[in-house]
Amino acid sequence: MQEIGNLNKLTGSEVLLLVAEGDGILHTYASARFKPLVMQSEGRALIQSCMGA
């Protein structure tokens, strides 16, 4: 995750990283533009629907 944060800071790119564990635990990193996708309930619901949950 730290490397993704560095990529965001060094290049100014917008990044979204989702890591889903086998037991359904989701880890995320999101730059400012994608932060609402992982922080707001609508975004979390979209992610869950894409994962088949």
Rg of Cα set = 12 Å
What do we call the CATH topology? Answer: SRF-like
Characterize the largest beta sheet: strand count, sense, and whether it forms a barrel.
2 strands, antiparallel
Second-tier CATH architecture: 3-Layer(aba) Sandwich
Total DSSP E strands: 2
- Give the percentage of residues in beta strands: 15-25%
Low-confidence stretches at least 5 residues in length (pLDDT < 50)?
A: none
Number of domains: 1
Class derived from helix and strand content: alpha+beta
Which superfamily, in CATH terms, is the homologous superfamily?
Transcription factor, MADS-box
CATH class: Alpha Beta
Termini separation comes to 24 Å
Residue share in helix: 40-55%
The topology string of helices and strands comes to: HEEHH
Count up the helices: 3
Strand order of the largest sheet: 1-2
Mean pLDDT: 87
Backbone shape: flat
GO molecular function, one term: DNA binding
Protein name: MADS-box domain-containing protein
List keywords for this structure.
53 residues; alpha+beta; SRF-like; two-stranded antiparallel sheet; 2 strands; 19% strand; TF_MADSbox_sf; MADS-box domain-containing protein; protein dimerization activity; DNA binding
Summarize the structure.
The chain has 53 residues and is α+β, with helices and mostly antiparallel strands. Helices cover 47% and strands 19% of the residues.
